[in-house]
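Quick question about two entries, pasted in order.
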Amino acid sequence: MIIADIVSYLEQIAPPAYQESYDNARLIVGNKKAIVTGVLICLDAIEAVVDEAIELGCNMIVAHHPIVFGGIKSFTGSNYVERVVIKAIKHDIAIYAAHTNLDNIFKNGVNAKIAEKLGLENTRILAPKRQLLEKLQVFVPNQAMEQVSEALFAAGAGNIGNYSDCSFVSNGIGSFRPNQEANPTIGKAGELELQSEQKIEVIYPAYLQSKIVRAMQAAHPYEEVAYDIIALQNSLQTVGSGLVGTLSEPMEARAFLKKVKEQMQTDCVKHTALIDKPIERVAICGGAGSFLLRHAIAAQADVFITADYKYHEFFDADNALIIADIGHYESEQFTIELFYELLTQKFINFAIHCTKVNTNPVNYI
């Protein structure tokens, strides 16, 4: 098993194409072809975590937060980021991060793990992302419709929510005249050909475009394939920011916040004034989520659980709901557990460890 196998697996679950523009989710340090001796999972790949990996004999760290966000022009060890990178390279330790791409997926995502801890049901993405979908239209002779469709589905096209192999097929007549240099599957050079054809339409995540087009061309019998790619404005309901769900039974507000404090293992829950109604609908966002407040209100959430709220931003609740700030580390700490579950259900031939280092830079008295 090599590092590239782990990277490929995690990126099938949380494609890098779904990360935010400021992010740096990727293999940051290391050789993809190196054989894995062990994996250490953490939230932050700080120096103490690298030391722990060395002690455990792990040559790969899987982190939530990237140790490098922007460009680094020198490696002199002048700050913790440079020291971590230098030490990792010196000891042949790879560092991989899945950050906002893991935040933004619905299944197996950071917010899904929080929802699990809080017992939320009927969950959905709070703010689905747009401009992530494309539609392919391809024209095929009748006898090739099934083989081309199967190739498209196998490459990742035609998935809509809980449904796969989704397409629309319509009939028509295609015309073409091969020139003298053509090698047509149907027809003769110089002669106009009218052929009964079917138009197959499928949607897919835009990042899969190259793979899907290659699969289509390999399965299509024509020398020149006629097809269209159309960018869609549709929201992708399984990708986006935050999550909203419901409790199995409504709870009094103070009792619910106490439950949040206990389940999320936080020393402090900062919140706005309690509302005079039971808590039933809950919006959540691991990490800094103030940008989602209007979405939480629009979803008619009774409480919005997130982190990194500034003083004046608490006023924005305006008695529409409760804002509950549980701390950045506290909101994302169970991402370690999430990584562990994902990796152990797939890989069994090397040791996988969860860090014992508390990387939270914030302390409470």
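Here is the second entry:
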Amino acid sequence: MTLRIPFNRPCVVGSEMSYVADAVAGGHTSGNGPFTQRAERFLEAQFGVGRVQLTTSCTSALEMAAQLCDLAPGDEVIMPSYTFVSTANAVALRGARPVFVDIRKDTLNIDETLIEAAVTPRTRAIFVVHYAGQACEMDTIMAIARRHGLLVVEDAAQAIQSGYKGRWLGTIGDLGCYSFHETKNIACGEGGALLINDARFVARAEVLRDKGTNRRQFQSGEVDKYTWVDIGSSYAPSDMLAAFLLGQLEHLERITARRGGIHRRYRELLQPLADAGAIGLPHVAPDCAINHHMFHILTADIEERTALIAYLSRAGIAAVFHYVPLHSSPYFRRIAPVPELPVTDDISRRLLRLPMFFDLTDAEVDDVAGCVNEYYCAGGRRA
């Protein structure tokens, strides 16, 4: 069946296409070109970051962050299991081991009250994930990290333009990572950014992103030739992607505002079901500003979620579940004992994401919410 309303639809909101044409015409389409530099300066100014480096993906940014943390075999990194595999892969690729901690029932973020008990002499860092653009409890997490001499990396893949107590997510920890994948608020197909909030990491980050060479120093005249000085990879995106990204970034406020309108409309239309106890709706913690990256509901159980997905699909609407918890994955089962994470297991079986993208019309939101209401009015999983 052809879907009337997809889960996601990439959008063009400004000068994306003309900027791409300018990048091609300018003759520099590889990494670290003029548009890359413009996009990086935009992000630095917008979020008050000392240094931002565009990357080929948020996965690349996380891998760079893990390298900057000097992770080594035998080290441990505390993180939630309810996240995309890239968060854990960045750690595992360094030979370190993810230590999974359960999430909170309200924000679906790592439960900060459980972190300190997971710290051991091998712990080197805490990787937090701001799920759906909702902030983790960063004051508590940063205090724990400072007490134990740990680094904090913010996986803010979903959290550009979200805030915590007046600070932007991605700028609070030692390092932050954004995603510009096509499903994110700001997108260029594939892309990411590393936010360097501690100046001691800037010089090495430049080397890591440039294949382990000191080419940046050569280009600035600091050395008379460049060579291999550290590990690294080809983490810089094409300047054509950076050009498309800049066109999106210039409309950051507009995109966030529109997604906020969609989010509020969903909530208004589905609130009666939540009031009746049929579904759960997203929680927004006090002192936090969300970027409306996602709108999800919580069903009674996995059977109800499966039936609702099928019901919406028959109506031509794409709705999807999210992460399979990493602690239950085949790979993790081979490398470590499986922890008991009851909240993570429960949420992962019940969470359902509804369509959310910039061009989603009010009529389409009404259509989706109407079908969800019809499903429950028809008797839920029996429909």
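Reply: The longest strand covers residues 123-129. The two ends are 19 Å apart (CA to CA). Hope that helps.
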